[in-house]
Specification:
This is MobA-like NTP transferase domain-containing protein. Keywords: Transferase. The protein has about 180 residues and is α/β, with parallel strands linked by helices. It has one domain: Spore Coat Polysaccharide Biosynthesis Protein SpsA, Chain A (Alpha-Beta Complex), CATH 3.90.550. Helix content is about 30%, strand content about 30%. It has five helices and nine strands, in the order βββαβαβαβαβββα.
């Protein structure tokens, strides 16, 4: 299986920083995601933009994966373009979920394949709210999809805001 790591966002809510390179537990978030993704996928492609330049060294030197550049203007547009040029199945991962576990990724992939739909999306349920985490499994072309729900837990934090980053750092300190 191929993994596509979406790492081209502008990090607006974090002050226009190169979000994938933000350190969580003393390591850039993208490194957390790359190492876990490569445990469940045979190969990975990292999608970057002008906003996230500087990550290429991770692709070439540390993880031996490909980096591709997108416009970085619109997530759905960038993802759609990449999906048409890559072989399925494709696991799509956001670069800002540093605590996701390998076992949870394996469970999602298994449930997605068992659902026998074109696309499976990872949905987090917290109280009465449902939130898409940005993880998807594209098995084939088509428009039939299934939402696979998981109860919220700290490992499902998506670092998008300063508050999320503070919470992630607190989690690092609690684990030490």
């Amino acid at each position: 299986m191929l993994a596509l790591i979406m790492a081209g966002g502008k990090g607006r809510r974090l002050g226009l920083v190169n979000k994938p390179l933000l350190k969580v537990c003393s390591k850039p978030m993208i490194e957390h995601v790359l190492s876990k993704t490569l445990a469940v996928a045979s190969y990975a492609v990292v999608a970057l933009s002008k906003a996230t330049q500087g990550i290429e060294y991770l692709c070439r030197d540390l993880y031996n994966v490909d980096c591709v550049f997108t416009s970085g203007e619109e997530y759905v547009q960038d993802l759609s373009l990449l999906l048409t040029s890559l072989r399925k199945p494709i696991l799509v991962m956001p670069a800002d979920t540093p605590f996701i576990s390998i076992s949870l990724l394996r469970d999602f992939i298994a449930r997605g394949m068992d659902a026998n739909r074109s696309v499976a999306t990872f949905v987090v349920r917290k109280a009465f709210e449902r939130q898409y985490l940005g993880i998807s499994l594209f098995l084939r072309d088509g428009e039939d999809w299934v939402d696979i729900e998981y109860e919220w837990s700290p490992q499902l934090i998506n670092v998008n805001t300063v508050e999320d980053l503070i919470e992630a750092e607190r989690m690092c300190k609690n684990d030490s």
